[in-house]
Amino acid sequence: MTHPDARPFALELLSTIPSLSVRARCLCRNQSDAHDLVQETVARALSRIHQFEQGTNLRAWLHQIMFHLFISRRRRALREQVSLARFAAEHDYPRFGESNAFNARFLSPRLVAALESLPSKLATVVRRVDVDELSYREVAEEMQIPIGTVMSRLWRGRHRLAQAVADDLMRVNAEAA
User: Which CA distances in Å does 47 have to 44, 56, 75, 163, 165?
Assistant: First the structure.
């Protein structure tokens, strides 16, 4: 593999963005998700420029990267749904889709405390997606923010929740020892 000259590579990459955007909209069926997918594709291509063989079809290479990223996102979302369902089943929590109101009695006290400690923007997104089981699109429309922002807040909220619960469990284990 030869390392492509950066300037012609960048110019050709820029020229393929419109076709990447069209394909991303077809795959995602949502403008905001499509935009995120194009950005992720370009970032992945730039980080792996050394893998591109000069003289081959850059457009096809970029579209292949995009498709693999799209499939990975879909699989990750499915794994998250399965994990949440398994967690709810293991802890005898009922399905939360019945009510749009946040109902803390179905959550463990540790999780409720961790959720209440989150900044309100993060807590709202986590509650609406994970507790009320709304789609990213529904939450984005309700809060009047882009879907990418919903995804970002959800990731940060989940990350902070996991850290808070883990810290609390470590504290309890240390006190018990």
Answer: 5, 18, 22, 29, 34
